[in-house]
């Protein structure tokens, strides 16, 4: 018999290294001889979209078209350290460092422009330096040439604001910031075979500010897939310390056919210390998926499973045990 | 992997000559989805591969008045295309569609699935349920062998030195006849079967089960006919009680067969659900309490595209 059920899971998650550990990102923003912007940053793109959004953050901070921003990363000989692509920290930490370096570069560009135009009230708008009091304009290329054909370079450094917990009082500031989300999942359990089918899911994700909504949605799909594998497929099958499921033939991860449609609800509540309000979501989008699936299985068949993955074998056994 | 020569045979006699010439040193390659992995992992050690994937006569499916005949090098994608829309053959379509992934189905062949002789081979149970007959060709000539007799053990088939499996045939389905398949894989694609059953069902005009053949995968050394389940259903009205009883009989049989194995407890229970699904797929309830075999209502459309 097929039985359906709903389940929810919700979490809050502190992003970054936390607990006072030095969580530092560095960035260099540069105006090159062609009038283009280069961002040097040690952040690693692992598919999460750092390469895209760090360029967006620089373009937004400078008010230049994103097309003239080049991100130079993952090359330790020419980029400053931006920490690991871990702890859901690149958007927040490195995003802040990139923003600071871009803002510093912007100030420097304005200083050079003031000298060239003899004007005090200047701003950059869509890649062009304009005067607020006259029609005078300059291009970024003009600035690059005026600064001796060399490069204008500015550093940005950002450190997350956390402190170690006081072991006596339990007080402190262990993480900054926190990210919150909730998953809803509908499953169908075949009580004759123990197979769990995920019918549909919804994810409500607090992102602070979505720098790139499509990438947020991609992160949710990816996170749910990992949570789904964690909940019902992935089993390393340890036997006296040996991993028996040591290949993807038997260590099963979800395929596209196993993924349901996920309704994504992006909640924007800007984080005051984040770059344009953004926070990290990489790990959070995974964490609540498995609990929601296990809750949905419970709702469907009334059996509370406390061990993952919930394979057909385990589920069928639990169903039989309940029947006595 | 230490392959010295790969020969691309242009016809069956050439392939047989090569197999005869190189003997133990040679293996057949068609889609390569099993043997390449076996070679890489040193499970198979040969120095010569005889590629049969471009032998035209092994890549055809033909439907005559009495028989449907498929070449051994037909791929699963080709099986799915050929039988598309013919619900009486849904078991063949479904089993083919559950093999690996689209890339694997484009390359892997039905002959390879049989000769690799994995207990989990997806395409074997529906062919057993259709009581398929194989043609094997060698230096000495042709011989025919029933699939059930061809499967000897896990990984072992009745193929002598220099012999090649060339065709797989079964009696064309008529009014009231159908074959279905049901598989338990641990995910929806790229899943090795944990358990599968196929059912051939013939329902007569009195809605009685005139003939039934049940086959299974992954609950024995190779795909098996499940005769106790067949006996339990034969001649009966296919009501819930009769079908439930047959599934219990099958479950008991599986329990006996797998006794002492860690998978026994799960498989003896799950086989009931998988068997029920295959039987249900084979029957169409007409809405007035009566039923007929799947595909019957589409009859007399000719099978295949001749």
From TrEMBL, chain B:
Pfam hit, one: FAD_binding_5
One MF annotation (Gene Ontology) recorded for this entry: FAD binding
Gene3D superfamilies assigned to the protein according to its UniProt record, in alphabetical order: 3.30.465.10, CO dehydrogenase flavoprotein, C-terminal domain (3.30.390.50), Uridine Diphospho-n-acetylenolpyruvylglucosamine Reductase, domain 2 (3.30.43.10)
Entry superkingdom: Bacteria
Keyword Nucleotide-binding carried by entry: no
Domain called FAD-binding PCMH-type: residue spans: 1-175
PROSITE patterns: FAD_PCMH (PS51387)
Xref: SUPFAM superfamilies: CO dehydrogenase flavoprotein C-terminal domain-like, FAD-binding/transporter-associated domain-like
Keywords for this protein: FAD, Flavoprotein, Oxidoreductase
Methyltransferase as UniProt keyword: no
Protein's recorded name: Xanthine dehydrogenase family protein subunit M
Gene source species: Alkaliphilus serpentinus
